[in-house]
Amino acid sequence: MIHEILPVGPLQCNCSIIGDETSREAMVIDPGDDIADILAVIQKHNLNVKQIVITHAHIDHVGGAMKLRAATGAPILLNQNDLALLKMLDLQAAWIGMASPGKVDIDHGIGELDKVQAGPLVAQVMHTPGHTEGSVCLYFPAQQKLIAGDTLFAGSIGRTDLPGGSFEKIISSLHEKVLALPDETVVVPGHGPLTTIGEERESNPFLQK
Ligand SMILES: [Zn+2]
């Protein structure tokens, strides 16, 4: 599996470009910004983007989605519980002092137990509310890899003080769903360095019982 992680935009959101070496089909997760850089990676690997998946509707994760859709023709996928946040992109832009990306349209909703596919690559959708109501993680069982959005970070968890956030819900999402994954699972958080489920189970201060 081809997997390139590109920190994009002023908040350095980890955008994942995941492709299959044989079919060249790919998915892009969280194209928050810097679409020209993302397209350069796609071209370098000669990939055909089939899905644009958004882990949650914060501007740093979704801001470049329409540009990427225009360039690739791929549909944009988001959990429906984040549609209200998606309508607040102008306000979100004002919070962090950046230009609004304009309106973003969703092509398909994704929820718990849905599968997102590109060629033979399959990701299972885990609905993990808490950072936002519609936050999802994407689990690639064959590769033992989790794209965690802003639900889990190395040594920390997503903030819950923004609209739609809930500390109780993120803790229950983490314990009931994320920590149910095997220790070897490599975690790609929405920002910052990679980690593993085992490492976080062991040492993340927010996950100790
Ligand atoms: Zn976020």
Structural summary, described in words:
This protein has seven helices and 14 strands. It is of the alpha/beta class. It has a six-stranded mixed beta sheet with strand order 1-2-3-4-5-6, covered by helices on one side. A hairpin with a 2-residue loop joins strand 7 and strand 8 (121-127). The termini are far apart. Residues 56, 58, 131, 150 line the site of zinc ion (ZN).
Hetero compounds: zinc ion
Number of helices: 7
Average pLDDT over all residues: 97
CA radius of gyration is 16 Å
Straight-line distance between termini: 35 Å
Derived structural class: alpha/beta
* Count of β-strands: 14
**Run of helices and strands:** EEEHEHHEHHEEEEEEEHEEH
Share of residues in helices: 10-25%
Poorly predicted runs are: none
Shape: globular
Largest sheet, strands/sense/barrel: 6 strands, mixed
Strand fraction:
25-35%
Strand numbers in spatial order across the main sheet:
1-2-3-4-5-6
Compose a concise summary of this entry:
The protein is α/β, with parallel strands linked by helices and 209 residues long. It has helices spanning 35-44, 59-62, 65-72, 83-86, 89-96, 167-176, 197-203, and strands at 2-8, 13-19, 25-29, 48-53, 76-78, 108-109, 115-118, 121-127, 136-140, 145-149, 152-153, 156-157, 186-189, 195-196. 24% of the residues lie in helices and 29% in strands.
